[in-house]
TrEMBL record:
PANTHER family registered for this protein in UniProt: GLUTAMATE SYNTHASE [NADPH] SMALL CHAIN (PTHR42783), GLUTAMATE SYNTHASE [NADPH] SMALL CHAIN-RELATED (PTHR42783:SF3)
EC number: 1.4.1.13, 1.4.1.14
Gene Ontology molecular-function annotations: 4 iron, 4 sulfur cluster binding; glutamate synthase (NADH) activity; glutamate synthase (NADPH) activity; metal ion binding
Organism (species): Sphingomonas kyeonggiensis
Signal peptide: none
SUPFAM superfamilies: alpha-helical ferredoxin (SSF46548), Nucleotide-binding domain (SSF51971)
Annotated protein name in UniProt: Glutamate synthase (NADPH/NADH) small chain
Family matches, as NCBIfam families: gltD_gamma_fam
Length: 474
């Protein structure tokens, strides 16, 4: 260990931009064993490991780095898996530059952070190949059942922990495949779909029952599900796209980011997607403008490149230093030919029936807003126009109106539309109905959803155990 002075930081090599832009495979391979051991040996084994502190799951990062450096990979996997149900997924899609690696002590010293995410991916991918990933350890049957609404990362994490406690677990999701945004929202060049599917298959083999194509409010309302199960968990995520108020926004060719990404991912599965096949959600040969600066916007621009767009531009109202998305993803997009138009915002969209262009304004950063970030304001005289055949709106997501959709008007919500929960128990305003993930905290990171799934499973277990004790006492 402590080799960070003499051993340079080295991430796994990326394929050339021209080559990787031709397919949806992940852009970098994982480490070979010697490289993983060498990079792990750079860890300084801090007394106070800021990497773990800033990881939402509080993974035992220095410990499994040490085990990897010593060649004890199976032990490293077991330790990594002890705090996370999806370590190889987090290793691929977490913004490590803002979390663990961004807070690495040797990064502060100027030596470059330990490549934590790449090592995490390497450990668990190796575990799958070597057969070290064991079935879900199902606990003794308790005779109580849980219904989970939403098969995204929060719901999947909770399902695994609740099976380990011994509960019957049923997961309801409106899509035809489980995984939520892991399956349909994140492109394959960041997260190949077999990585997600093998996790879901493991849960199925562990007795988790998936009810797919099941829309709460249509197949059954919330009250009917409450009667089926001892307790419920709402983990739907947030899917309602934020809109743009601008002339011409309703023109054909202006699409939502999630519709665009879902269509692309479905094609990757080999599905028939009429809106893609007729060209509506296909960027091939088009001048594409993506509006937004988060990770979803980066997914959209890089997807457009792979679909053969004639040009791809990203409009964002702040500058590069103030964008919410990962700087690594921005760099990957630039390497692949995406042009970023910083400090710009759309004013109107040209085109009678179909969009032909975007009229935009130059922006400048003014005084800080309530969050402390400098608020963008229009720079007078900075109007310009971009040609566009396809405009993708990637401005973030908001909660759907779940009380109305679920037929449960008594379900409490905050002023932002997220579900209101007790901060100590994670229970909603309905007794025995819990909530976790983005539907509570708002649009956030996958790693936070996994953390919430882990936490809520413990709260649900405590509630059901107390209920069973009361029933026995009676």
């Amino acid at each position: 260990m402590l080799k960070f002075v003499g051993t340079a930081q080295a991430y796994p090599g990326k394929r050339e931009a021209e080559l990787r832009a031709e397919d949806f495979r992940e852009i970098a391979d994982r480490y070979a064993v010697p490289s993983a051991e060498e990079q792990s040996s750079r860890c300084s084994q801090c007394g106070v490991p800021y990497c773990s502190v800033h990881c939402p799951l509080h993974n035992h990062i220095p410990d499994w780095l040490r085990l990897t450096a010593e060649g004890r990979l199976r032990e490293a996997y077991q330790l990594s898996n002890s705090t996370s149900t999806m370590p190889e997924i987090c290793g691929r899609i977490c913004p490590q530059d803002r979390l663990c690696e961004g807070n690495c002590v040797i990064e502060f010293s100027g030596h470059g952070a330990v490549t934590i995410g790449s090592v995490e991916k390497f450990i668990t991918d190796t575990a799958w190949e070597e057969g070290w990933v064991e079935p879900v350890a199902v606990g003794p049957a308790r005779g109580q059942s849980v219904g989970i609404i939403g098969a995204g990362p929060a719901g999947l994490a909770a399902a695994e922990y609740l099976r380990e406690y011994g509960y019957d677990v049923h997961v309801y999701d409106r899509h035809d495949r489980a995984g939520g945004l892991l399956t349909y929202g994140i492109p394959g060049f960041k997260l190949e779909k077999h990585v997600v599917m093998r996790r879901i298959e493991r849960l199925e083999q562990g007795g988790v029952v998936f009810h797919l194509g099941f829309e709460v409010g249509r197949e059954a309302n919330l009250d009917e599900l409450r009667k089926r199960h001892t307790t419920l968990l709402i983990a739907t995520g947030v899917y309602k796209a934020r809109g743009i108020q601008a002339p011409g926004v309703g023109a054909k060719g202006i699409v939502e980011a999630l519709d665009y990404l879902t269509a692309s991912n479905r094609k990757g599965f080999g599905d028939a997607v009429p809106a893609f096949d007729d060209g509506s959600l296909d960027a091939n040969g088009k001048h594409v403008v993506v509006i937004g600066g988060g990770d979803t916007a980066m997914d959209c621009v890089r997807t457009a490149v792979r679909q053969g767009a004639a040009s791809v531009k990203c409009l964002y109202r702040r500058d590069r230093a103030n964008m919410p998305g990962s700087q690594r993803e921005t760099a990957n997009a630039e390497e692949e030919g995406v042009e970023f138009v910083w400090l710009s915002a759309p004013e109107a969209f040209d085109g009678v029936d179909t969009v032909t262009g975007v009229r935009a304004s130059r922006m400048r950063l003014g005084a800080p807003d309530a969050s402390g970030r400098r608020a963008p304001e229009v720079d007078p005289g900075g109007a310009f126009q971009l040609k566009a055949d396809l405009v993708v709106k990637a401005l973030g997501f908001e909660p759907e109106d779940l009380p109305r959709l679920f037929g449960a008007e008594e379900l409490g919500v905050t002023r932002w539309g997220t579900l209101r929960t007790d901060g100590r128990t994670m229970m909603t305003s309905l007794d025995g109905v819990f909530a976790a993930g983005d539907i509570v905290r708002g649009a956030s990171l996958v790693v936070w959803a996994i953390r919430d799934g882990r936490d809520v499973a413990a709260h649900m277990h405590a509630w059901m155990r107390a209920r069973a004790d009361t029933a026995r006492a009676a």
